[in-house]
Each structure stands twice: as structure tokens, then as C-alpha cells.
């Protein structure tokens, strides 16, 4: 299999506070093409550091990607660093220069001497057209490696990869069997519990790489593997042995097994969000929904309306922070508010019922809780959240106790509310427990 | 100045889809201590690759940080890779082993042979206590470098850095003058225009590193510099020359100059969000706000309520996707809806007025627009958004035309609405233009 190294150039990437994202999507695009990234390196805008990194990469990888450092300023050193490392002079590429001048003219701007720097490429390099920006990329062969230099601006690099890099990789026969990637999204189980449940399904030496990623939205289990040539070869030479081997090792079966042991905690696979899952379900069942949000402040409405076409099932929402607005907009009785307090099961239920009956929507969903950092008491601590669901048949409330800062508690509360809705839409039991519970999917692992 | 290299270990970091975040906060913590990260490397869980990376790093950096690969499974190779590279045998650290056993016992779990692997450290290495997880870190000196191995789990690495790494860096006198970082957040100017306005303030050879970061929330300008020892030295030897030099070169003055040329497009500095800025202003002026959101779907309410204490000024919000809900919840007249359409200036104004009068809040803010991808027409294309602001004195509407996908348009619309509110709160002119304009702050640079 071809191995690749990605070198990201930019002093700002070394200062902290900024994540380097080009190598992330490049690695993903490469995995889809069966090319495994084995090294990533980040260096600053220094001629020496970029040159060293490229020389080392070309000595160990089949394919080298350099992103960044192709702009017009003197800080942009990639062209010169590669030219020096490969001992080729920089030459003006007339075609690249023409494109830059045209582009600047169309934008009504004067072409500066700096802009001209971008048109210089190491001798013998192939220009890679930049369809969405001024700086061209370039490709050259050095030692036994192919070196691609792409702009640092993500959408320029992405466009150039698809338009110009892929055909070169194809011609050079550097492509392999694409990696298989499965992601399983769960809500309601902590990381350690997931670890325990799926323990042993993927042995340590398995080609499937298992990753658990905990966030406020739950724990995602990712499984990645490169199809193994050895297995496929064996299948042609010795069918019987291969079949028995395949039945034991079939990655798809292992994925199924994991999904099955995680049960109805799995809310989606392959990157779909909870809002898409419930949206699709509402649409399929021809139901409309109305929201009454207190501590989530509009987040559930925001998430549901992130999905294209959500106007078909999202009827309306109200954000009622004050008691007065709960009374006016939802018809929650002031005696219930007084008796149980705004953060309580009975108020969550009254909010869900109120928004449902006032809107005429099929389902009413409500949230009330203490997002913090202030406002917590001993009996109603920060993180206590009640979710109310009102449907034509019944109204239920579920209590949760979340941990984290204000943003995290809001996010978890929105996910918990949508998960209650998901379970009801899927005819799963909607938990109806009066006692707050730990359900935040994050552990100290 | 001490230079550092960060090596992140983990095959999952090379597969794409995942950003590597440990090096980001480590670089930030190190910058605060005056240590500049010069290289970052990511390698998979391979003995050879980790060993090679550590050897190379120790040869070129003063301080090396390795994160990840310290867990209990056979995939966790950092201990062995470092031991092999430094040619030291692995020895059981009885103290580390005791801590692991106690921790597992407290968690009610059985200690496995795998767990024991975590207690082995290269001979001569100093154990770094893990206050929040099982795997200890370790520190050793090799060649002329200090090598720190930290867990891959972020909050464990962060805690270990503060508790155990900092004291070692201090004792070894590896700390320097902390980096200065300023961030200026703007909305309403495209990247190219910002580039043009601030052009020349920071010359190419300036120690200040300038970065522009465009997002749906606007363009942020970041300025980072390490205080220069040379300048300070010169000040003692030749005061007059130093002063004239300092007046030209004072980074603080350059930051002020940039803020001044960007004018009232600057909405915040140093990481504050628009929701914090308007929240603080509402609170200071003792005003309450009510929201009427159509295409933003609750996002503005969500953002305002991300700020702690926002219940003091956020009265309520309604999300009114359907015409019917605009009539029922806001009192928008059906004739205005029929005459101008739901996405129009008059409807935005009626929505803002409606939510203000019905809620009794001081300010009403509304948004109506076409978020897409469907629903656009020639006269009302996807991305057309109207913001309405109703105040005790007057009601205004502003039209915007945004580009991007549904999520981006929602985010830009929420930012534009909050910016209209910010400008009114700061007594700046709130633009009141009937013609849609380009205001999305993103260019193809």
C-alpha cells in the first residue's frame, strides 16, 4: 500500500489555539483512495524547517503532501524551500502568471510584485491549477516520492485535490483499496460501559481500528480498516480456507455485533445527528412538533431546523425563560409553578402539554432545568434537567442530572430531549423516572 | 528561547475525520511559558515510528512532548518505544503499580495483567502522577533534551502538565517570557478588505505574527509575538536609541492601530463572542430583549443563553416557522404576509414590533429569511435575510444576502442580527437599506 506524509506549513499552526484541519480532510480523502497516511508534520514558515521536513518525508513516504506557504508574502516559503531541497532553480511559470493577472484584473485589483512570486515554480514541476484562488499548486517527483504542494486555504486545497491531484495519483497507480469506515453513535452509556460491552469483539491484533469518542452528544464508536489484500488473494487460491477465515474475520459482522450489544442506545450510524434521525422519523410518520424550551434557550429548535426541509414538521417553538412567559405562552398554571418550582417534572409536563394544545402540533417537547453556573440549590442542583413529552396518547417526564459547564449542560439537555423524542417515535420505552440520574456519557478514562 | 517538539501518538489521528487537539492546548500552555513549539509530528501506534520520531525530536528540540500511547493495551507502544530509543530497559515502578491497583479497586474493577503494563517505565525516568486517570506519565533526560510522555486523554494531559510538568520546566530554567496574543473580532468586512486596511502596519519581517481567520461569524485578526530579549537588552545599554526604536516597534501600538483602522466593524477582542458583547451591554443598560426567529430557528436564543446570567435580560423568544404561528404568536397581519411574503422587510418589522409589544420587553429582535437549500426564488433567493429591530424609539429593518449552506446561512443570519442589536446598543448607525447586500465576510483568498 502507498504510504503518505502530510506536512502542514504555517507558524500560526504552532502557536496553539488553532487546530490544523487540512491534514484531517486530506487523510480522509486519501483513505478513501486506499492511501494510508503514516506521518503528519507541522512546521513554521522557515526555509530550513520546511526544506528539512520535505527531504525527510520524500525519503520515507511514497507520496508527500505539503499544504500552505504558497501565498504572495515573503512568509510564504514553500516554493523556495522545495526548490532548495530538490536543488532545482525557481522559474516563472508564464501560464500561472497569466492566470494570476487575469484573476486580479477581474477582482478590480492591481497586480503587485508580491503576486508575481506565486507564479514561480521549481524547474520541472507540474503546475496544479487553482480554480478558486490565485496561488497555483505544483507537483514534482523527487527521489522515489511524488511531492504535491497545495495551498493552505482549505477549500482551495480540497478543490485542487479533486481536480488535479486525483488524476495524477491514478496515473501513477498509487491508489489502493479504499478504507472502510463505520461510525456508531450512542447516547446514554458512559465510555467505560461501552468499552465493557464491546470488549473482546475486536482483538488487539485485529486490522479493525477501534476508536471511542466521548462528547456532550454521547459516545461515538468508530471502526476503520483497510481491506486486506492477503485475504482476497487467499480467496482465489484456496476457497474453502478463505471462507472459514472470512466468517471469523469479516469486519462487517463485527460491526453488526457491536451495534447489537449496544442495543437501543445506538441512535445513528455514519455521522447522522440526532436531529436528522428524529426529523426523518417525524416526516415518515407525518407528525408535527412544537417546542417549549427553558434552559436550552432555543438550542433544540436551532438543531431541528439545521436539517433541510424541517419546516415540514417543525411547527413552532417558544423560549420561556421567565415564569411569566411560561404562564403567558404555555398556560402553565401559576399554582403549579409555585408548588413545584419552574425546574420540576410537573412544570415540564405542563409546558409540553401547553405548547402542544396551543399550537395544534402532534407532539409537544419541553425542557426545563438549571444550566448554571448560578441558580443551583441543594435540592435542585446545577445540571438537573426535566424533559417533558406530550403526545396524543400520554404525557411523560424524565429527569436527568448532567455535569459540565453551562454550554455542556445545554447541549446534553438538548440531546437528552431529542433522545426521549426518538425513543417515543421508535416505540421504545420512554423512561419515566422521578429520580435524577447520571447520564452524561463522559468518564475519566 | 527553548524550542519544543510535540509528538502525538495514535493511528486514529492519521485516519482523517479527527482533529488532533492535545498539541493545540499544549502549544498554548507552552507559549504562555515562553516556550515556542517549532515542530509537531503525528505518528501511528508503531514501535518504529514512535521511536524514530522521539529520537529525531530529541536531536533538534530542547523539550519533547509525547502524548498518547500510554494506555493498557498492546497498541500502546510509547513506553516501549522510548525505552528502546534511549536504550534503557523497562522497569516496574512499584509506586505507579500501587496507584493503579488502588484506583481499579475503588472503581470496583478487577486489575488485569494489561493494567500492569502501565506501571512500567524506562529505567531512570521520573514518574509523573496522573491525578485523574490510571496511566502515569514520565519524564527523562536524553541527549540534551527533556522528554515528557503524557497520556492521550486531554484532561489527563492538561492536569499532568499543570501539576507535574510545569515544576520541572521551572527547575530546568526552560521557561521564557510568555508570548503575547491579541485577537480582534470583526463582522461585516471581507478578508480582502481587512487585508487592504491593515496592509503595511505589520511589515513582513516584524516579530508580530499576523493571522486572519474567516468564519461564518466574521473575520478574526490575531496578533502573536514573543517579547524580544534584544530590545530589552538594548534598552539598558542605550536608552535613547531604544526608546525611538520602541515607539516604532511597540507591538501594543500596532494592535491599537489595527483596531482603529477597522473601526466599528470590530465587535470584540480576545475571544469574546457577539452574544457576550450584546449581553453585557443589555445588562449594563438595564434592558430586556425578546426574540422572534424564523429562519434561525432558535439559534439567536440559544446563543444569547449560552452566557451565564442571561436570564437577567433574555425575556423570551418564539420560533415561528409557519405563517400561522407568525400571526398567532406575534400578531403579524395576514394582509402584510400576503402582500410582501414571509421573507420581507415589512414582516421582519412586524415580527420585531409584535414580540416587543406582546412580551413587554424593551427590545424586540426578529429574523426572517431563506436558509435553503430549497425555498429560494429569483426575487427571494437562498441567503436573503431580513433583520428587524424594534425599540421604544423606532423600528428598523436591514436586509442581508448571505452565501453558503444552510448551517452557514443560519449562523451568519444570527450574527448579523446580534450585530444590528450591538450597533443600536452602542449608538452606532443601524443600517437601514432596502437592497440586499453581500456581507458574508468570506472570500476566495
Distance between the first and last residues' Cα of chain A: 34 Å
Structural class of chain A: alpha/beta
Summarize the amount of helix of chain A as a percent range: 25-40%
Task: Outline the biggest β-sheet of chain A.
Answer: 6 strands, mixed
Percent of residues in β-strands of chain A: 15-25%
Radius of gyration of chain A: 28 Å
How would you name the oligomeric state of the polypeptide chains in this document?
homodimer
How does the overall form of chain A come out from the CA principal axes? elongated
**What strand order characterises the main sheet of chain A?**
2-1-3-8-7-6
How would you describe this protein?
Two copies of one chain form a homodimer. Chain A is α/β, with parallel strands linked by helices. Chain A has three domains: 3-171, MoaB/Mog-like domain (Molybdenum Cofactor Biosythetic Enzyme, Chain A, 3-Layer(aba) Sandwich); 180-269, Alpha-Beta Plaits; 274-425, Maf protein (Alpha-Beta Complex), CATH 3.90.950. The first copy, chain A, has helices at 22-32, 47-60, 78-86, 94-106, 113-117, 154-171, 191-198, 229-237, 239-249, 251-262, 274-284, 299-304, 323-330, 334-340, 345-359, 406-425, and strands at 3-9, 36-43, 63-67, 90-92, 120-122, 126-128, 137-142, 145-150, 180-186, 209-215, 218-225, 266-269, 289-293, 314-320, 363-369, 384-390, 395-401. In chain A, the strands form four sheets. A six-stranded mixed β-sheet of chain A has the order 2-1-3-8-7-6, sandwiched between helices. In chain A, a hairpin with a 4-residue loop joins strand 16 and strand 17. In chain A, helix 2 packs across helix 3 (78-86). Chain A is elongated. The two termini of chain A are 34 Å apart. The model of chain A is unreliable at 230-248 and 433-445 (pLDDT under 50). Chains A and B meet through helix 1, strand 2, strand 10, helix 12 and strand 14 of A and helix 1, strand 2, strand 10, helix 12 and strand 14 of B. Strand 2 (36-43) of chain A pairs antiparallel with strand 2 of chain B.
Amino acid at each position: 500500500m502507498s504510504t503518505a506524509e502530510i506536512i502542514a506549513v504555517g507558524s500560526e499552526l504552532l502557536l496553539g489555539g488553532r487546530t490544523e484541519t487540512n491534514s484531517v480532510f486530506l487523510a480522509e480523502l486519501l483513505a478513501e483512495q486506499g492511501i494510508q497516511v503514516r506521518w503528519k508534520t507541522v512546521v513554521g514558515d522557515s526555509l530550513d524547517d520546511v526544506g528539512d521536513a520535505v527531504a525527510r518525508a520524500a525519503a520515507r513516504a511514497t507520496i508527500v503532501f505539503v499544504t500552505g506557504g504558497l501565498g504572495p508574502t515573503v512568509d510564504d516559503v514553500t516554493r523556495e524551500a522545495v526548490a532548495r531541497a530538490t536543488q532545482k532553480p525557481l522559474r516563472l511559470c508564464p501560464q500561472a502568471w497569466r492566470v494570476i493577472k487575469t484573476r486580479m484584473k477581474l477582482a478590480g485589483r492591481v497586480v503587485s510584485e508580491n503576486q508575481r512570486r506565486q507564479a514561480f515554480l521549481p524547474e520541472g514541476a507540474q503546475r496544479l491549477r487553482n480554480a478558486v484562488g490565485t496561488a497555483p499548486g505544483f507537483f514534482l517527483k523527487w527521489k522515489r516520492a511524488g511531492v504535491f504542494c497545495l495551498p493552505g486555504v482549505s477549500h482551495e486545497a480540497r478543490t485542487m485535490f479533486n481536480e488535479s491531484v486525483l488524476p495524477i495519483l491514478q496515473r501513477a497507480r498509487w491508489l489502493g483499496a479504499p478504507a472502510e469506515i463505520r461510525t456508531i453513535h450512542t447516547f446514554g452509556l458512559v465510555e467505560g460501559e461501552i468499552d465493557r460491552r464491546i470488549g473482546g469483539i475486536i482483538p488487539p491484533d485485529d486490522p479493525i481500528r477501534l476508536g471511542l469518542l466521548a462528547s456532550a452528544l454521547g459516545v461515538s464508536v468508530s471502526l476503520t480498516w483497510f481491506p486486506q489484500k492477503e485475504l482476497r488473494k487467499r480467496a482465489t487460491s484456496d476457497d474453502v480456507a478463505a471462507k472459514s477465515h472470512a466468517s471469523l474475520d469479516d469486519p462487517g459482522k463485527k460491526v453488526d455485533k457491536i451495534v447489537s450489544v449496544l442495543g437501543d442506545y445506538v441512535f445513528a450510524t455514519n455521522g447522522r445527528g440526532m436531529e436528522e434521525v428524529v426529523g426523518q422519523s417525524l416526516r415518515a410518520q407525518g407528525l408535527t412538533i412544537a417546542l417549549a424550551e427553558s434552559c436550552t434557550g432555543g438550542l433544540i429548535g436551532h438543531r431541528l431546523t439545521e436539517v433541510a426541509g424541517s419546516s415540514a414538521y417543525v411547527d413552532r417553538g417558544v423560549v420561556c425563560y421567565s415564569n411569566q412567559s411560561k404562564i403567558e405562552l404555555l398556560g402553565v398554571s401559576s399554582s403549579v409553578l409555585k408548588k413545584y418550582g419552574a425546574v420540576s417534572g410537573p412544570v415540564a409536563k405542563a409546558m409540553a402539554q401547553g405548547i402542544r394544545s396551543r399550537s395544534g402540533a402532534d407532539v409537544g417537547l419541553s425542557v426545563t432545568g438549571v444550566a448554571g453556573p448560578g441558580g443551583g440549590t441543594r435540592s435542585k442542583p446545577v445540571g438537573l434537567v426535566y424533559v417533558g413529552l406530550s403526545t396524543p396518547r400520554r404525557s411523560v417526564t424524565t429527569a436527568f442530572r448532567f455535569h459540565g459547564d453551562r454550554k455542556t449542560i445545554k447541549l446534553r439537555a438538548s440531546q437528552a430531549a431529542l433522545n426521549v423524542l426518538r425513543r417515543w417515535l421508535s416505540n421504545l420505552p420512554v423512561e419515566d423516572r422521578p429520580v435524577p440520574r447520571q447520564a452524561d456519557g463522559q468518564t475519566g478514562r
